[in-house]
Amino acid sequence: MTKIYKFLLVISAVLGLSALGMLVFGDGLLATGPFIVSSLICLAIGGKNVSFLNQMSFTIWVIAAVSVGFFYPQYFQEIGDFKFTGFIVPLIQLIMFTMGTEMSIKDFEGVVKTPKAVLIGLVSHFTIMPLVGFTLAKSFGFPPEIAAGVILMGTVPSGVTSNVLAFIAKANMPLSVTIAAISTLLAPFLTPLLMKLLAGQYVDIDLQAMMLHVAEIIILPILLGLLVNRFLSNGIKKIQFMLPKLSMLGVLMMMIVIVSSGRDSLLEIGPLLFLSAMIHHTIGYLLGYWSGRFMGLDEASCRTISLEVGMQNGGLASGIALQMGKIATVGLASVIAVPWMTISGSMLSNWWRKKDNEKSKIASSKSMK
Description:
By secondary structure, the protein is mainly alpha-helical. A hairpin with a 2-residue loop joins strand 1 (about 80) and strand 2 (about 80-85). The protein has 18 helices and 2 strands. Helix 2 packs antiparallel against helix 4, helix 7 packs across helix 15 (about 265-295) and helix 9 packs antiparallel against helix 16 (about 300-310). The chain has helices at about 1-25, 35-45, 50-55, 55-70, 90-100, 110-115, 115-140, 145-155, 160-170, 175-200, 205-215, 220-230, 235-240, 245-260, 265-295, 300-310, 315-325, 330-369; strands at about 80, 80-85.
């Protein structure tokens, strides 16, 4: 099996170099599609035996999904009268249901145990990211619907991936779960309100309708997941190992569909959107961390708040954009942001983990002396 993984890694390198060569010698970006998609898939599978690549596996799959939608949009837009965008909301609901099955009342104990840290995390999340998104939308001069999408990415709750990265970063896991859960439950109220205040000048925001849509996407599936976990816990344990994989598959399918529907806009505005996403989430990590530091929180809690502020629920942003009927424009910011969040969040978490390991080695060597 190890030989197969090594072979796939070599193939991914060859295909990647072939794609680079085609770009350099003028065959154009679109012509490199088969090489790029194939090399990414080989890299994702072949990297399982390489520690760093294995940790980045989901990120590589996300980039591969974006590439599939970008290079082959004609296959993922519609079949007859059925549009593939009709899958997006059910996929998000599946992800939220999965989140609900893994939640319980214990997840909210952090509010009682560390109310200060939870409050700092929530306030930072729903102020830093929306205001930075608004500033970037203004500064870059994006078209109105693209600008609204950038702001939307700043107003949604934190993403589920932040919990995984908090574990890798040796951060405060109970705090991470609590902030993610409460920010998600607050989203039906705060996301539409912030969109009305900050993005109302770019697109028409129906406050009541958006609240109902967000509640439909988030609250109902999470409540159903909680009920299943509470009353059918024995049954759900038998299939629980499959649920995270289903969630990840759902995210990948959403990426393909959204990129396919907005490919033309991506060709025109993609590089600027990517730069905007880099700035947006990097500032989120930075200000999130220092908001905790400024308020006297410990290192682990500061790391948690950094990740919870900087990492947004891109799937929910896509679902809201779809409900607005603007998935090909308002929804583009989330497609660009998700790969960058996953890459940057993974790098930051691994850097913190490595930093702690080095400190432990130094302390251990000193104690031996």
